[in-house]
Specification:
alpha/beta, TIM Barrel, 10 helices, 10 strands, 15% strand, oxidoreductase, NAD(P)_OxRdtase_dom_sf, AKR, AKR1C, oxidoreductase activity
């Protein structure tokens, strides 16, 4: 099946491709590489591109998208592009300027999805990670319901087609859903999700409110990444995934991606390796049996690679809740 045709309907009537290309890269990857791999991903068949102001690569990703539009590979409406408002712009008056800055970097007229990157607010300013003289993050205090209203205005202004959140727990989602005068529900909650952290309770909660769960870190995490606890087991070496992969003549990565697609989760595949980018699009070429799905379900052990540990003292730190 052609991957760009497998889409999931959002609660606002728009459609999101079930498989997305994640553009976040470790700092050692040169920015120019983002142009090349994003172009390559679009050529390979990816139509859903996920980035963020905090990745500091929107100029390059925008350049790649525009070059693939210019050469006739895709039209703008074929591409589903996600950006995220970073923690230093969660004050309501800073949200639209942040989106306008992203659009200027991208040189696009609109994004398809704009989401709150994470619920922990940081001090506004140029720095992505404002820290004090002791290297501790400088927090800001923001009412996320007001931030949400600012996102609703961005949608009304036509700067984004859809709006959502990321790294929210169910209580934080509930606060927005129960907000007096809510105009638009979040269409998605983008969270870390993989066989070791399958988010089944959060997924159930999101489904009950017609919110799509989008999985990042779906292949575990590169051990080198600065945010990641290096002592955790490496997901792609998991014997259960290897055995299932062997049976289907696929790779463990493809099994981990396929698992999400079959449970109705939109999944991001992040890779700067061309061979693997091409491979990841093959997730639509095979199907896991109910027994295999059950075996993968059984791997859940609440292993969180991206635990935002340095934000743990903020009142909005999301992972103190069970889900």
């Amino acid at each position: 099946m052609d991957p760009k045709n497998q889409r999931v309907k959002l609660n606002d009537g728009h459609f999101i491709p079930a498989l997305g290309f994640g553009t976040g890269a470790p700092p050692e990857v040169p920015k120019s590489e983002a142009v090349e791999v994003t172009k390559f991903a679009i050529e390979a068949g990816f139509r859903h591109i996920d980035s963020a102001h905090a990745y500091q690569n929107e100029e390059q990703v925008g350049q790649a998208i525009r070059s693939k539009i210019a050469d006739g590979t895709v039209k703008r409406e074929d591409i589903f592009y996600t950006s995220k408002v970073w923690s230093t712009s969660l004050r309501p008056e800073l949200v639209q300027p942040a989106l306008e800055k992203s659009l200027k970097d991208l040189q696009l007229d609109y994004v398809d999805l704009y989401i709150i990157h994470q619920p922990v607010a940081l001090m506004p300013g140029e720095a992505i990670f404002p820290t004090d003289e002791n290297g501790k993050p400088i927090f800001d205090s923001v009412d996320l319901c007001r931030t949400w209203e600012a996102l609703e205005k961005c949608k009304d202004a036509g700067l984004t087609k859809s709006i959502g959140v990321s790294n929210f727990n169910h209580k934080q989602l509930e606060r927005i859903l129960n907000k007096p005068g809510l105009k638009y529900k979040p269409v998605c909650n983008q969270v870390e999700c993989h066989p070791y952290l399958n988010q089944s309770k959060l997924l159930e909660f999101c489904k009950s409110h017609d919110i799509v769960l989008v999985a990042y870190g779906a292949l575990g995490a590169q051990r080198t990444f600065q945010w990641v606890n290096p002592n955790l087991p490496f997901l792609l070496e998991e014997p259960v995934l290897s055995a299932i992969a062997k049976k289907h003549k696929q790779t463990p990565a493809l099994v981990a991606l396929r698992y999400q697609i079959q449970r109705g989760v939109v999944v991001l595949a992040k890779s700067y390796n061309r061979k693997r980018i091409k491979e990841n699009i093959q997730v639509f070429d095979f199907e896991l049996t109910p027994e295999e799905m059950k075996a993968i379900e059984g791997l859940n052990s609440n292993i969180r690679y991206y635990d935002l540990q340095h934000f743990v003292d903020h009142p909005e730190y999301p992972y103190s809740e069970e889900y």
